[in-house]
Each structure stands twice: as structure tokens, then as C-alpha cells.
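>> received
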Amino acid sequence: MIRTDQGEQESQGSMKKKRHTPEEIVSKLRQADEMVAHGKLHSEVAKVLGVSIMTYHRWRKARAATPAASVVGARVGEVRSRATEQNLDNRLADLEIENMRLRRLVTDLLLEKVRLEEILGTKRSGTNG
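>> returned
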């Protein structure tokens, strides 16, 4: 059934294509946490938030995978997020250096193995020949 009222059609069309900003998502997920804490079902929570159950679960999954400090627009812990980012950058740099050292070590060990195999090969072929 198609309604002739333009307002109804526009509101229905905007519901399908609405993009939520990260700030809106964070706010809605906080509301959802409160509702779930009060015993509401996830399907009820999604309905109250005005999103599908799949969108609600996708947001929750994305929030679980992303630290709260790094969510764009999250003002809570903004100073802490900068410090955390610096710590992560430092940790990444340390791991890259360690990775480079380990790669060199593995390469050196492989070269030593090849050298020893060649020595063993020449000794065996020399004694059998």
C-alpha cells in the first residue's frame, strides 16, 4: 500500500538509507546497554533505537573489536586515547625491530644449515667415491 502523503513517503525512504554518525552509534549503544541492563530483549532494544536487529548486532560487534578510546568522536578518554596511541605506536616500533632481528637470525641459521649440509655432502661423496 503506497500512501499519497509526501511526508510519509519521505520518512519511509530516509529510514532505509539513513547513515548514522559514529557519535550517534556510540550514543545509541550506550542507550542499548542501559536497556539490556534493565532486562530488555535485543530485538526490543533494536526497535527502540530505530535500527534493524542485524545493524544493532553489527554495531555491537564493531564496538567490541574497536577500543572505546579509538572510536571517532568519543570524547570520553580523549587524552587517554592519545597516550594509548603513542604507547601502541611505540610498541609497534619495538615489535618491528624485534621482527627484523628475528628474521636476520633465521636467515643466518638457514645459511649456516646450508653450509653444513654442503660440508657433509662433500665429506660423504669423498669417502664413498
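>> The helical segments are 6-17, 22-37, 42-49, 53-65, 78-128.
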